[in-house]
């Protein structure tokens, strides 16, 4: 039987169409051009489960022929950089109000996972030429190009790439936002490039969208990642704001700013996981802390406590809660340790007040209430109304069931299969494509047959 497959192959888009698809203001475009064969770029409204981040379409640059799967891929020319190379070059006039511009990108590659750590690194670059900054703006936090070796290349589950062509033969970075410094009224050149390295097959692509001018003032390009604020240490300080505190979290970068109860605090970047902040003066009590890092922010509710230092006013501090895992039915005795607990202190579990017993200023015992499975916050409030909260202080879990589903207990109390007495896949002694277990003298012997599928070598 002869089977015929029809593949829709794009004929390419103009540079103006690509720029418009990624929302570049037409009035700011001085010139626009493309490099590579016309069939290697297009304007798309989606790629499988992947949708635009702005508007109804995005620009798509590919190292193969659009519409042809990335593996084995399409060899568009001589191997290496001179061959399969697709680009969009824009000359842009910077508005007077802009200090930077942002754009979204998503790099996808069929080279994952076979060639991770090798020299076969298809690459996405955003080459910038301007008075504020020049160079490749598409680099990760460690200064590496955007390839399958980048720490940002972490979308590899097939369901997250379903229908894209890269779902079972590759991976992606997912949508990321880059921020690039510019000088107002300057003319900058932006050259978006994606290219094969050392071969013309196992193709890669980049999606481009959501271009925008910004007033954000940055010294160097930044690829924005979602940040997390975990806790502050110390998490309390005097009302005059004279004591520095360390904000601990993840994804921090130069330019992060902290806010205490909405008031900006002097903030110093230390590393990806910590900032030093000087809280502003504030009346006694709990305040929320927010950290903003150019395009991403996170907050800690009741994350910092102000107290009256000269009057012996002291906020409680939770250091540990044990046990951490508790049954959803409740009724377990929990020990909270720390300091500054006072007679009459009240304990809340996910906002539910529970009976608490003060053992001493460093220990409180309370009974866990019934609660659905998951993480919950625990708060202690002194009679002075000063408090501390431990985010995710308890984890409620469902009790394990026994016997497992589809099993029953035999006379020894061991689980046996109620569905079948056969070893799965044991047909006439064959163990092809499965594992079998057999008990003999001295223990259990396990025979496993592993079917290896070798991927084709690169051309």
Short note summarizing the structure:
By secondary structure, this protein is mainly β.
Can you offer a commentary on this structure?
- Strand 18 (267-271) and strand 19 form a beta hairpin.
- This protein has 1 helix and 34 strands.
- It is elongated.
- With 459 residues, the protein is mainly beta.
List key phrases describing it.
single chain; 459 residues; mainly beta; 7-stranded antiparallel sheet; 5-stranded antiparallel sheet; 1 helix; 34 strands; 2% helix; elongated; disordered N terminus; disordered C terminus
Class based on secondary structure composition and strand pairing:
mainly beta
Biggest sheet layout:
7 strands, antiparallel
- Termini separation comes to 31 Å
The helix count comes to 1
What is the gyration radius calculated from CA atoms? 29 Å
Strand content is: 35-45%
The coarse overall form would be elongated
| Average of per-residue pLDDT values | 82
Helical percentage: under 10%
Number of strands: 34
Low-confidence stretches: 1-9, 410-459
């Amino acid at each position: 039987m002869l089977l015929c497959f029809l593949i829709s192959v794009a004929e390419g888009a103009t540079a103006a169409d690509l720029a418009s698809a990624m929302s570049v203001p037409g009035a700011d475009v001085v010139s626009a051009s493309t490099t590579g064969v016309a069939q290697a770029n297009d304007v798309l409204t989606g790629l499988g489960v992947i949708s635009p981040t702005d508007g109804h379409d995005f620009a798509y640059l590919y190292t193969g022929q659009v519409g042809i799967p990335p593996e084995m891929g399409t060899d568009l020319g001589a191997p290496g950089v001179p061959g399969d190379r697709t680009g969009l070059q824009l000359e842009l006039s910077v508005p007077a109000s802009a200090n930077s511009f942002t754009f979204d990108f998503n790099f996808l590659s069929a080279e994952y996972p076979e060639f991770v750590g090798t020299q076969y690194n298809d690459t996405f670059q955003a080459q910038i030429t301007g008075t504020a900054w020049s160079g490749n703006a598409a680099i990760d936090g460690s200064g590496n190009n955007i390839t399958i070796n980048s720490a940002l290349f972490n979308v590899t589950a097939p369901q997250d790439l379903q229908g894209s062509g890269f779902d079972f033969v590759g991976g992606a970075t997912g949508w990321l936002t880059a921020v690039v410094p510019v000088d107002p009224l300057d003319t900058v050149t932006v050259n978006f490039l994606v290219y094969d390295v050392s071969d013309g097959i196992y193709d890669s692509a980049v999606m481009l969208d959501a271009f925008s001018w910004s007033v954000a003032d940055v010294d160097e390009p930044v690829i924005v990642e979602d940040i997390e604020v975990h806790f502050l240490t110390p998490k309390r300080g005097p009302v005059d704001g004279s004591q520095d505190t360390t904000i601990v979290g993840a994804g921090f970068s130069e330019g992060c700013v902290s806010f205490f109860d909405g008031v900006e605090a002097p903030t110093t970047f230390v590393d990806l996981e910590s900032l030093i902040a000087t809280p502003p003066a504030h009346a006694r009590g709990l305040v929320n802390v927010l950290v903003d890092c150019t395009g991403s922010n996170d907050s800690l509710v009741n994350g910092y406590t102000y107290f009256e230092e000269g009057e012996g006013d002291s906020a409680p501090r939770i250091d540990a809660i044990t046990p951490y895992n508790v049954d959803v039915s409740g009724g377990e005795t929990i020990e909270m340790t720390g300091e500054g607990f006072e007679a009459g202190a009240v304990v809340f579990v996910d906002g539910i007040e529970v009976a608490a017993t003060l053992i001493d200023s460093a220990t409180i015992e309370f009974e866990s209430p019934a609660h659905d499975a998951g993480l919950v916050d625990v708060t202690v409030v002194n009679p002075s109304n000063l408090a501390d909260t431990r985010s995710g202080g308890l984890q409620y879990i469902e009790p394990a069931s026994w016997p497992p589903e589809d099993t029953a207990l035999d006379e020894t109390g061991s689980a046996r299969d109620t569905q079948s007495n056969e070893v799965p896949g044991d047909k006439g002694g064959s163990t092809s494509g499965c594992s079998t277990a057999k008990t003999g003298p001295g223990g259990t012997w396990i025979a496993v047959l592993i079917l290896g599928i070798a991927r084709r070598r690169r051309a």
